[in-house]
Specification:
Chains A, B: One of its GO terms (cellular component) is cytoplasm. The structure is a homodimer of 342-residue chains. With 342 residues, chain A is of the alpha/beta class. Chain A has one domain: TIM Barrel, CATH 3.20.20.140. Chain A is 45% helix and 11% strand. An eight-stranded parallel beta sheet of chain A has the order 1-2-3-4-5-6-7-8. The first copy, chain A, has a two-stranded antiparallel ribbon with strand order 9-10.
């Protein structure tokens, strides 16, 4: 079974974005837009995924996509905690409907109603409730955790700060992982998909390396997307840093709890990822339909057709099974109770 | 001739750091510490590099190091423009003395008196003057340009902003490149050497990709250190992004002006760098003595003995000559007038 652990609903019906724009505008005017003001029909949902994700799943041979709201569009800096909570419910409910319509092809991952600055702590308490709702009521299998709800200015404490602990307690209780994923960048110095995303991944990994988080939560599972940002390319730097500081080796310090996806859009990058990171820590993903949509003239295939690239890389059968789906079933363990495990 | 294009004076005599601490403390008390209050003898300088950089140059077979003040210690957020200017002069003068004592082994690169926030513009004007002083009076061959003088919060405009243009004009006039290098991080969420450094490299590359800077300055040369941050590992993402946006291919858009160093501390990372980036854009460097100081148990050699790692990688003779020194002589073109070119 081939599981793409990183897909966003970037093709959502236009009404979703319009609702969000009205919500942001209304907040500026001191009013709220109600979540139930959004109207999207099942037909519109079928159309939105039918010619997008579903078609590509079929063409590329992916069985299931772990599916979340558009990451950039989480844009946690807007409004207040209530803004973020309403928006998360709206976005997550829509993911829930996609998964309800196509239960064999999509498993839900929710965005969390995070907020930056003084609202962080309250927003994490709200996130605990929203996570519980999404997992228990909507059957979701994980969440997206944004390490920078300021959206490009890195003003939150590290993810290892105690302010996040109620969320980690709930994740462990529900047995769900988080994918650590920044949202948009509103910082002109940090372009979104090719700078902020990778910076966020790299920063988060280092936060994890230099903390005791996994002593406090030995069961916690975190996925770092985009092939781990800069991390595998600089694996020697991280190994050397840990050794210099008298910290345990990376394998011991983080690889029991931290996983990387394969959203790396060229063969050489994927080969490096698979060479330096143990196969049991790598999860197939394509970020589809996502950051890069065109066809690579060097391969004649879409840049984000990662399955095609991985198919061309030498791996043992055991490793391939793990990377293509086995690891995802272990990390997103609720996939099993959803009945999608083989 | 083997040229390490990225070395910092991390082993500077203690008096330097003590002067800087007094300067920062004094600023808080509304007074200034004079640059001439720093006293360091030639003997102390000889000792500081003799058992450090010089010994390692000899052991590892490096002829010349392009040498700059400690990057983290630039810490541009402290004090005001004058603080940064005094500190830059002190730090650069010391580099000038190292180069004066060992002219065949070190060529100077200066730190710039940048400052964040409202002081940015004035600080860039000061940087123009300090660059001119260092190149014309001290014989330096380049400068370090910090894309984030806020030291970890990314509050400056992109490096392509017109505020930096007077500096680029002077660089072109003097025919010197800049290495784009952040300083310390004072942000708990962004560890310095393994997160902020790589995030800064990656962010800067993306700023360059999405601008017309090199149309305005076709002669400008910029080196992105630490193997280009996350960039070569995600080469496909960048190629795809440029194509999606209708921008020219990377080769055309930036590779006439942008170069990567080899500060990547494991063989697999270096292989990837050399596979995806044309050899003429890669400059040997080890960041020695720098971020990672220990011995890699997998090789029995220091993590930052990049020369040893590169020696073990297949390259044509032409590429090896370019990467080991030829490119550095082209990019840091003033090395030639210093008489160190072969």
């Amino acid at each position: 079974m081939i599981i793409d652990c990183h897909g966003h609903f970037t093709t959502a019906p236009k009404a979703l974005g319009e609702w969000r724009e009205r919500q942001i505008r209304a907040f500026g005017e001191g009013v709220r837009v109600r979540p139930d003001e959004l109207e999207i029909t099942d037909g519109e949902i079928r159309e939105a995924v039918g010619d997008g994700q579903l078609r590509l799943q079929n063409e590329r041979g992916t069985d299931l996509t772990v599916f979340s709201p558009g990451a950039g569009k989480m844009a946690h800096h807007h409004g207040d905690e209530r803004t973020s909570l309403d928006w998360s419910r709206v976005a997550n409910d829509l993911i829930g409907r996609v998964c309800g319509l196509f239960p064999d092809r999509f498993a839900g991952v929710c965005q969390l109603p995070q907020s930056p600055g003084g609202a962080l702590e309250t927003s994490i308490r709200n996130s605990v409730e929203e996570l519980e709702r999404c997992v228990e009521d909507l059957g979701f299998v994980g969440c997206l955790l944004n390490p920078d709800p300021s959206d490009g200015f890195y003003q939150a404490p590290p993810l290892t700060d105690k302010v996040y602990y109620p969320l980690y307690e709930k994740m462990v209780e529900l047995d769900v992982p988080a994918m650590i994923h920044v949202a948009m960048s509103r910082n002109d110095a940090l372009q979104g998909t090719c700078a902020h995303y990778l910076a966020g991944d790299t920063a988060a990994f280092m936060q994890l390396c230099t903390s005791n988080l996994f002593e406090d939560f030995p069961e916690l599972r975190l996925v770092i997307p985009h092939g781990g940002g800069a991390v595998p390319y600089h694996w020697g730097r991280y190994r050397g840093f840990m050794q210099d500081k008298g910290l345990p080796p990376l394998e011991e310090a983080v690889l029991g709890n931290v996983f990387f996806d394969t959203c790396v859009y060229h063969r050489r990058g994927l080969e490096l990822l698979l060479d330096v990171v143990p196969a049991e820590n790598v999860l197939f993903a394509s970020e589809m339909i996502g950051a890069v949509r065109g066809v690579d003239p060097e391969t004649g295939r879409n840049f984000d057709d990662v399955k095609f690239l991985l198919d061309g890389i030498d791996m043992t059968d055991v490793d391939r099974e793990a990377v293509y789906g086995g690891n995802a079933q272990r990390v997103f363990s609720r996939l099993k109770s959803r009945g999608v495990a083989k």
